[in-house]
Structure formats: structure tokens, C-alpha cells
């Protein structure tokens, strides 16, 4: 198979979908890999390293899309890329379709095959290609939250861990999944007073067992959220419904109940956000303020630490990508239920129910297409 890896063009996105080590794995199996020039530079990989691993380097993004049978990316295609995607071309990347209708419509029109990292799912319902970036984003949410709590950043002027004689900051985490767990570990490690909200009692029992004493769990409901946000200094939105739009747990009217300088970090923003007032921002302009509450809503948080993120992501995606290249997408997805669940749009048909429901589109079962 011919694999193409374009350079990411989303603002301040420095990750790359394939490392030189990954290229070598494809090439030794007889596949051809084309990298766009400088695609890996942001993550610390040079064109020479890719060439030494066996890839060919093409000068432009158009060249890569034109020649490839499978496109491997990190972030969803953005508008300048829509017209480059060809009929029947396999695109393997994060899509987060349910949060953005124009992208969904563009991929339907392209007649391509869209296999989304974020909906590849194991039998235990874990999401193996989302986990590594969720780990990075969860840890970064606290790192960034601590920074924006500083007064010079318009925050409350609070040190997350406090000092002797001064209470630490209160951190409220909405969701006890991978993002919430990693955020709690970071916040607790810095000495904050941490509360995790979730609706799954079994998960909360597990978190109670593994977390240190400065982490508490409380059942998530509107009453508890309204009560806790009044004292919280940093609130991390870490809610995910696979493939679907995140529910708004914090609504516009709740901002009035927060103290000025409270910081909100919505990690779910690329899936629509679980905080109603959040809208996607970039690393260039990461925050905005509503009702004296600081909103940090960068949609590609792991892009700020691309070396770590690229290695973590490609460790997870490469085994699946090799299956797609070896067998072709149809056979690979028939034989691997995990990959099969990653299929979202196939040649103009929406085959992932949550995406169809998000925009009231016609849903086609995978059995009809495969």
C-alpha cells in the first residue's frame, strides 16, 4: 500500500502521524511511504531521518494527497485539505465528527473512507488510540490550569499546592476516565485539594482505592456541581461519550456562581465541550474571559508537547495502521472488531450512529457496506 503523511496545518499543531521507526516497519513489509517535507520537524524528526528509514519526501501537501492510498494524520482535515481528499482514499486520523458539521459534510462529499482514531474500541470499551492523548491532555490540563491561575494570567492568584499555613487550591474534575484520572494525579501530586465527579460508582470506588488522601470522589449531578463550583479554583472538563458530542455539565448561568479568576480547562472541547461557554481556541490565543472566569479551551493541547505526544500516539496507532496496509481497510475491519468500530464515514455513507444523530443524517449500518 502507498501511505502518505502530510504535514499538519492546524495552528500550532506540531505532531506528526508517523515516526522514522514507523516508516521502517512499513517499508520492511513492502509498503511505500511518502512524507511531506518538514512534516516531522515540529516533533524533532528530520527529513533525512525519514529518508534513512526508507521514506520518500515530497515537497507539497498536494503531492502527498495525490499519491497516497492511505493518509495518516493526527488532527482532523481542515478546510484547505477538504478538496485534496480523493474518492475511496482511506484517511486514518482523529476526526471528532460529532462536534463539527462542515467537516462531516465535506468528508461525505469526498466519498473517502474515514477511520477515526477516537472510536477504535476494544471489547472492554476502552479506546486505545484516544488513551495516549487523553493521558497527555489530562496531565497538561493541570499544568496549564496552574499557570492561568496566576494573577498575571487573569486568574485568582493562587498557587495550586499552597504553602505552610496557606490552604492549597481546590481543583474540581468533571469525569473520572483517563483524562480525569491523569488530571487528578497531577493536581494531587502538586498538593491541591482535588475532587473528582463521575456517575459510575464502580469507577469511583476504583479511584478511591488508587488515589492519595487529597483526592475525593463525589457523584456527578447538577446539585453537586452547582455546590462545588462556588469554591473551586480550577475546574477541568474531562467528559467523553465516544464518538458523540459531550454533554454540557456547566451551563452559562453557572459562571455567575463562580469566584472571579476561576479557571476552566475544557479538555472535551474537540468533542463539543462539556462547558457550555467554551469554544475551541489555539495555542496562540488559548484563553478568553466570560463573567471574570478564565476559559482555556485549546482543542489540540498535546500539540504543545509534540515529541512526547507523537511517540505516545504512534506507539498506539502503528499496529492498527500496519493491519490496514497489509490487508486493505475492508478485510482488516472485517477481521478486527476494534478497527471496525473506527469506521465513521464510508464513500458518502455515515456508518457511525452517534455522528448521524448529531446532525440528523441518514445512518447506514456497517453490515450493508462491508
UniProtKB/TrEMBL annotation:
It holds the Pfam family AlaDh_PNT_C. The gene is ald. NAD(+) binds at residues 134, 198, 203, 220, 239-240, 267-270, 298-301. This is Alanine dehydrogenase. Gene3D superfamilies: NAD(P)-binding Rossmann-like Domain (3.40.50.720). It catalyses: L-alanine + NAD(+) + H2O = pyruvate + NH4(+) + NADH + H(+). One of its GO terms (biological process) is L-alanine catabolic process. GO terms for molecular function: alanine dehydrogenase activity; nucleotide binding. Its EC number is 1.4.1.1. Keywords: NAD, Nucleotide-binding, Oxidoreductase. Substrate binds at residues 15, 75.
Amino acid at each position: 500500500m502507498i501511505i502518505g503523511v502530510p504535514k499538519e496545518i492546524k495552528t500550532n499543531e506540531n505532531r506528526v502521524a508517523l515516526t522514522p521507526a514507523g516508516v521502517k516497519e512499513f517499508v520492511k513489509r513492502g509498503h511505500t511511504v511518502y512524507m511531506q517535507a518538514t512534516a516531522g520537524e515540529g516533533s524533532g524528526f528530520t527529513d533525512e531521518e525519514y529518508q534513512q528509514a526508507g521514506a520518500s519526501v515530497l515537497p507539497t501537501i498536494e503531492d502527498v494527497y495525490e499519491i497516497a492510498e492511505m493518509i495518516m494524520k493526527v488532527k482532523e482535515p481542515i478546510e484547505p485539505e477538504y478538496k485534496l481528499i480523493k474518492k475511496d482514499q482511506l484517511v486514518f486520523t482523529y476526526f471528532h465528527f460529532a462536534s463539527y458539521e462542515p467537516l462531516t459534510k465535506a468528508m461525505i462529499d469526498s466519498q473517502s473512507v474515514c477511520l477515526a482514531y477516537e472510536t477504535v474500541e476494544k471489547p472492554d470499551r476502552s479506546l486505545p488510540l484516544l488513551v495516549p492523548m487523553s493521558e497527555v491532555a489530562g496531565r497538561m490540563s493541570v499544568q496549564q490550569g496552574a499557570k492561568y491561575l496566576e494573577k498575571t494570567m487573569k486568574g485568582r492568584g493562587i498557587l495550586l499546592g499552597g504553602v505552610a499555613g496557606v490552604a492549597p487550591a481546590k481543583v474540581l474534575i468533571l469525569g473520572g476516565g483517563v483524562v480525569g484520572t491523569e488530571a487528578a494525579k497531577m493536581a494531587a501530586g502538586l498538593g491541591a485539594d482535588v475532587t473528582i465527579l463521575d456517575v459510575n460508582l464502580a469507577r469511583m470506588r476504583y479511584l478511591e482505592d488508587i488515589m492519595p488522601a487529597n483526592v475525593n470522589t463525589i457523584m456527578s449531578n447538577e446539585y453537586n456541581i452547582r455546590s462545588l463550583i462556588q469554591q473551586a479554583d480550577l475546574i477541568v472538563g474531562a467528559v467523553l461519550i465516544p464518538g458523540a458530542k459531550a454533554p454540557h455539565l456547566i451551563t452559562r448561568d453557572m459562571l455567575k456562581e463562580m469566584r472571579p479568576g476561576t479557571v476552566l480547562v475544557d479538555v472535551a472541547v474537540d468533542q463539543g465541550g462539556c462547558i457550555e461557554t467554551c469554544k475551541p481556541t489555539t495555542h496562540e490565543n488559548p484563553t478568553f474571559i466570560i463573567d471574570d472566569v478564565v476559559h482555556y479551551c485549546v482543542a489540540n493541547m498535546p500539540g504543545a508537547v509534540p515529541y512526547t505526544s507523537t511517540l505516545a500516539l504512534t506507539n498506539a496507532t502503528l499496529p492498527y495502521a500496519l493491519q490496514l496496509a497489509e490487508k486493505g481497510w475492508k478485510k482488516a475491519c472485517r477481521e478486527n472488531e476494534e478497527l471496525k468500530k473506527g469506521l465513521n464515514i464510508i464513500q458518502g455513507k455515515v456508518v457511525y450512529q452517534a455522528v448521524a444523530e448529531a446532525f440528523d443524517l441518514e445512518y447506514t449500518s456497517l453490515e450493508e457496506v462491508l
